[in-house]
Specification:
With about 140 residues, the chain is α+β, with helices and mostly antiparallel strands. The protein has five helices and five strands. A hairpin with a 5-residue loop joins strand 3 and strand 4. The chain is flat and about 45 Å long.
Length: about 140
């Protein structure tokens, strides 16, 4: 394994459990909860929730994995847009699809807004709820 980008640590530095959790998240199309991960990784020797939570905590801390607050679930980072300090997800209320968005402009706007009130933000993490394009097209076709 290699470093995905300059903003994340080299994956060779991950523990075995962290690598297992990351690989499980990368193999899925959508988010997984800690208990989904535990079920998938039991045969790999991860049998206790604290093992999963410790791995997730470190992966989230490094930015390789993101937590979806509304679902209490986790997804691997979409490395195609590495560079921003935050993450924003578009979540479809109809089908549940999730799209990780670029946040460079949003980061800059929030940083200047928060600094104006003396608040120093460490990171942006959020969700935008609505309807994805395929679900929107289905509604207009009906």
């Amino acid at each position: 394994m290699t470093q995905c980008c300059e903003h994340h640590p080299p994956e060779e530095q991950l523990t075995r459990n962290q690598r297992l959790v990351l690989d499980a998240l990368r193999s899925e199309d959508g988010p997984l909860t800690a208990y989904n991960l535990l079920d998938r990784l039991r045969d790999e020797g991860l049998r206790a929730p604290p093992q999963i939570y410790r791995a997730l905590e470190k992966l989230v801390e490094t930015g390789i994995v993101h937590r979806l607050e509304s679902r209490n679930a986790f997804v691997s980072c979409n490395h195609a847009h590495c560079g921003g300090q935050g993450v924003l997800f578009a979540v479809c209320d109809d089908c549940g699809s999730i799209e990780e968005l670029r946040t460079d402009a949003i980061d800059a706007a929030l940083r200047s807004t928060t600094e104006a009130i003396g608040f120093h933000a460490h990171r942006l993490a959020g969700e935008v709820r609505g309807v994805c394009r395929p679900c929107g097209l289905k509604k207009t076709a009906s």
